[in-house]
Queue: 3 jobs
Job 1
Amino acid sequence: MTKMADFDLKDFLPYLLNQAAEASSVEFQGYYKSKYGMLRTEWRVVFHLGRYDHMTAKEICDRARIHKTKVSRAVAELEKKGLLIRRRVDKDRRHEDLVLTPYGREVFDDLYGAARDFDRKLVKDMTKEEQQLLRKCLARIADL
Amino acid sequence: MTKMADFDLKDFLPYLLNQAAEASSVEFQGYYKSKYGMLRTEWRVVFHLGRYDHMTAKEICDRARIHKTKVSRAVAELEKKGLLIRRRVDKDRRHEDLVLTPYGREVFDDLYGAARDFDRKLVKDMTKEEQQLLRKCLARIADL
DNA sequence: TCTTGATAGTTACATTTGCAACCAATAAAC
DNA sequence: GTTTATTGGTTGCAAATGTAACTATCAAGA
């Protein structure tokens, strides 16, 4: 055996974070997946468009830290499902401005509310201080 | 716009957790990937075998909460790379007892130490209380 | 103007994953 | 003792992901 036999996988922060992330996502994921057939990246894209009205794919990439191929595929999928449309930007035709359709906004409203409820449920038996500290630590680790 | 325009993706705990998990894993992942060509599940299996000497695949599944197909594939890969061997259990020939080879143990020792250093680095500018609380909250969310 | 280089986004391919069906060994039921 | 269920583990296939190469558009410099 090694010298530090006291260090377990459950003490390893990346492991803990992964398990917590996984556990915290499962339920909500089930919601948007079963109700709208959406993938996580699609939900994130919808979130950003709902929250910031219109954005280019690049802006979403930067803000949400998602790789551009993932965003590209999510956008294509969402377009196909009728949740968003692309608007040509005449000033620079490399960009595409993305906007939710009315249906896309409906979906956003539903998911936004659900996300909020879900978040509340996750922290419901933590104190305000614990919550704040948790979010602060996570943000620091994530370098947000 | 919706009523609660104050709730951003960065406030959504599952998102925060995912970003933090992702960020915290990248560096260490690079280490075992480039040095030993290992995948995350392989590292976790090696960890358990190094830590608990010998286990069956099922035990690893339960303890680390990894799906059996992932473990199965990781074990096959590790066997191929010469890090572990399977031992037949005569009492119940459905089980296979897994043990690290001497080389497997070398790898474990290296990674175990690296993991520990890495963990320390992650929490280096948190107070003891912050660390404890963080781990406690994560464990609770992960339901560990 | 003609190259050179960057930038936004897409596509192709290889690798990983998740799910369900599967096999083999044991245990339980009759 | 023979059928039936359960359990440990593997495999096959479809879906998801990462990487790198690609297209198209714009910008800068010679």
Job 2
Amino acid sequence: MAIAAFETISEKKIFWHTTAIILAQAVKRLFPEAKLGMGPAIDSGFYYDFDLDHRFTEDDLTSIETEMRRIVREDLPIERRTVSRREALGWALEMDEPYKIEIINTLPQDLELTIHAQGDFSDLCEGPLLERTSQVRAFKLMSTAGAYWRGSERNKMLQRIYGISFPRPSLLDEYLQNLVEAKKRDHRKIGREMDLFMFPAEGPGFPLYLPKGMVIRNELMSFWKELHAARHYNEIRTPIILSEDLWHTSGHWDHYKDHMYFTKIDEADYAIKPMNCPGALLAYRRRLYSYRDMPVRLSELGHVHRHEPSGTLHGLMRVREFTQDDAHVFTLPSQVKDELKDIIALIGEIYAVFGFSYKVELATRPANSMGTAEEWTMAQNALKAAVEELGIDYDIAPGGGAFYGPKLDFHLRDCIGRTWQCGTVQLDFQLPQRFDLTYVGADGEKHRPVMIHRTVFGSIERFMGVLIEHFEGKLPLWLAPVQVKVLSVSAKYADAALALAGEMEDAGLRTEVDNRDEKTGYKVRDAILARDSYIVVVGEKEEKTGVLTVRSAKAGDMGEIPKAEFIAMLQKEVADKTY
RNA sequence: GCUGGCGUAGCUCAAUUGGCAGAGCGCGGCACUUGUAAUGCCGAGGUUUAAGGGUUCGAUGCCCUUCGUCAGCUCCA
């Protein structure tokens, strides 16, 4: 969520960090035995981690807030003191703060440290902070959650308290109001209201698409197929179940088996594919390609299953079964950069169709990976060069790569500011080796191709989730399950409504009729809640004049529009993919 | 998977400290014949509260286990 209350990012960080320290002070006053973890400012707000046997309750949050209010009223000056490492250690020992000692011990030897003190409390933190506690005028503790010390599941889980703060109470109110609004856009709720999909208790993480959800899904897929065919991708479809041996060859067994499902056929071991690449490799390897054939672009709307940990499932955004809009491109080493640039441009172009802004991240070599350092450096440099030549900004995610190669991830933002990795471009020198892929070069010798894995939507599921939240269910017309809802004013006009709907359907528009024995206002309300794109009412007036009375989901009442004009307008809106 | 919260009708929610399980929406029927965000009346719907076990004269409520779900962590398209 955009937070406009602060002039600059650093101002915001200073403010929130200061509030986190006040939170720590309040907790220490109420629970002196609590040990302090870390308490940074984050994208929206701040948190502080505590190690404490007592579990924080809702009531505790309220009393902590009260104590924080007291600290703010006390108007304590916040004093900054630069100390040596030895002094800092002395401070931490005296305070009996084991986590602070650990932090100090991991910092460089010669680094100067800072301790901030306010009244009865002091904390080791770099700062900068505000000058007085009274500057934090409005704050709220939002929630508690467990969080591993230093983010590692091998470490102890601490209790984290999240909060938000502002210089003025009105800004806090506005923020809380925005949160309520954001919640209304939750795709899980809208999906139910629009009758798009469901998550049966019988299959956690396995979405069940309903007829209207299928419309969106199918539209996305045909759009994608059309675009890729035009760019000389050739579609394939690889089996869902393949021999376990294949996954040993590919390296997935060693690096990914905890996330895979397995099965047996007769006495032999098989795996349900979590990725499409091995299938694509089999397709490539079926024949000998010439350098003249390259690049070979094999695309696949690949249905994969992954055993994701139960706690990570989240509507359509994180599921255990999904369809990746995948493609594997086999190129000559000399073609890699241009192919990467084409792919990156294609991703940007497709996102633009929906009006999405996105952020790019270069994910580098992870700890548990295949291949040599040289190969990784080469691959990372190729990705870097491609984005840079296109003039696209990117961040670096150290160690975030796939086990077989580095990648560029494209993140889309959801309604409450969470970002979701959708598109990805991954460079892979490993699988071609493992599968001994070759092409015949101009010299008549066999050479090793380079493999690029890439998706644009990421998965149809996640992309749909982001779309639904972004548009609050009022999808661009070309994607909308119900493009025209025809309402009859009374039973007398039921036939006229059916006839009109027939005309709309003949014009290629997805149309529904509501001839229920209800008041017009009721049916209009129903259509609005269903987010039907256009509502057309049929009654005496329309029957006489042939003019339609139209209401749009996005623009509201549109008044009267001649029928032919209306149809042409919608056809254009669909064709243009207007958003 | 981990930590914590939650689980009552298809949906959204009620049910004083443990004491006979309710409402609105939706659904079915009837009447009304409807003009841009909810017409009225009647009715069905819970095998008794996610499932299983325990404490108790008595459990939706307390305890345990499992499952699901939500938030966060870790992970990830």
Job 3
Amino acid sequence: MISIKDIALKADVSIATVSRALNGSPNVTPHTRDRILQLAKELDYHPNAMARSLVQKSSRIFGYIVSGIKKGAKHTIVQDSLMGVYDYARSIGYEILMFVVDSEKQNTKSYLDFAREHSLAGVIMQGLRTDDAYYKDIIDSQIPCVLIDLPADCTRVGSVSIDNHAAARTVMQYLVQKGHRHIAFLSGVDEASVTTLRFQGYLSVLAENGWEPKSDYILHGNFSEEDAYAALRGFLPDHPEITALFCASDLMAIGALRAARELGVKVPQQLAIIGFDDILLASYVDPPLTTVHQDFSRMSYEAAKMLYKIIKGQATPHSKNIPYELIIRQSG
Amino acid sequence: MISIKDIALKADVSIATVSRALNGSPNVTPHTRDRILQLAKELDYHPNAMARSLVQKSSRIFGYIVSGIKKGAKHTIVQDSLMGVYDYARSIGYEILMFVVDSEKQNTKSYLDFAREHSLAGVIMQGLRTDDAYYKDIIDSQIPCVLIDLPADCTRVGSVSIDNHAAARTVMQYLVQKGHRHIAFLSGVDEASVTTLRFQGYLSVLAENGWEPKSDYILHGNFSEEDAYAALRGFLPDHPEITALFCASDLMAIGALRAARELGVKVPQQLAIIGFDDILLASYVDPPLTTVHQDFSRMSYEAAKMLYKIIKGQATPHSKNIPYELIIRQSG
DNA sequence: TTGTACGCGTTATCAT
DNA sequence: ATGATAACGCGTACAA
């Protein structure tokens, strides 16, 4: 491993000059600068990230913190999101250090310890819920942070997502315009803020049309395919008047689809089913799901971009919505 | 940020003693050891990973190098694999630093530079192909390394996968036993070593039955759903005698499935289609795919385990196969 | 058993 | 423009 010391020796200058040349300081003669750069290339010099981080008290590493991921996930969201962050990180010469929050195994290490031990430049969080213990930690933390799909009430913390409320309204307006008058809502985990936003979008369109929300039209699927299936098995037989179901996630929509098929309810003829997320499965199930497309890769890219601005102290809004799109397929 | 210096001050000992106590050195009085540990807890001390790595010339970080991943991947393999590595890493207090090899954008940084800059303890590689430029680098590299799904001809480099040859034979024997006599093979990317192994498994069962392999029964789908679709569209109409198709990947099998459906070929009645990998989609398509299940999470966990042993100089075989399973669904 | 002192590779401050 | 030198936090060889 060759260091600036070696270069300094060969170039017959001090290590300080080498450091300056390498970091593009103006206080170096163009001549010696070139000579040092040339030498660095010849010797295949690469700076030691540890040493640099140690003295600068900050590494060029983003922490990527993901919560609630288990093996056998039924979507590629984490993968896509990670790639988005990675793409931006690499464009600025940063790396990604992983941290998985396991609510069951309860990590011994907190995300704060994680960030400090590695002098992370900042962290990006994905999949967190408002009831996560980590969520609170962020508030008193001084570490730059951007949340994906979770609003940040604190000004120091950034946040990027789609406009879930508006997206839910788009879905509902689409259904209303297609003539549906009795629309049920399949809700997700209450502690996920997106659930609330999508639900409020549902309610607002109901209100707009002068329709009272009926509490037994609100189902709970817990963002799980199985729970959704069970909920629909119990609900559909008693409610033939329902012609449309808006699900807060594709996975739940897929569970609902199965329940409908088993009960002999034709989708979309007797029941329109709309999902949310546009996960990979959405276009492969039968019938293909009409759903709201979220570009997690883009979302995460923007999150990384925002994080970098925050770190560098550049002006940036601390909240950003990226576009979503209603994808109309055959389920409704 | 509190350091051993702070603890030393409060405990009225030298930093050397603190360091020893923290690292479980025997040369510390139990009394002072306890006092220091207690103090460390009180002060919420956490070691600075950078400083430690700098002096030890090795960090407690695994590099996770993944190649050929693009946004919108149609499987969760990377995600699952990453979680497997992560699980083991956390169990020994290690972290994961990401590195994505992008064959198109051709990274400026090599994986070796990446590893050295961060003094990585070792690296795990997934998705590499034998024609990858990185593959050669591994040979002269001194960095501990374990490959997933890619055999290592070098003794210093570890490797873990399933027995692809045996798995292919299992599939073929299953088909033969069900009475199939004319079986086509849909091959993947030639540079992926798994392709070759699966193909050889196919050939060996053919030979075992005294059947000559026919070159026009070997199709090429390039591990792509679209290419597989195109290949089958051209192949099926001219070969009604074919009753079974063994695909080197599920994604290609799904493409084949679509081609068959569009051509009015009933699966599995007229054509049995077998996949490989058991990706998430396999159980969601119609008909659900019969395929070989690979536990990528487990594979990666074992890879991390092997890597750690190599790093620690513990005895370990440098090659390991984990179990696979033929999952019989409805496609064949 | 404990303390002193050095070195890891780098950046940064102060002279020159 | 350049050089000497002090940090950064930690591990460890050597001395006591």
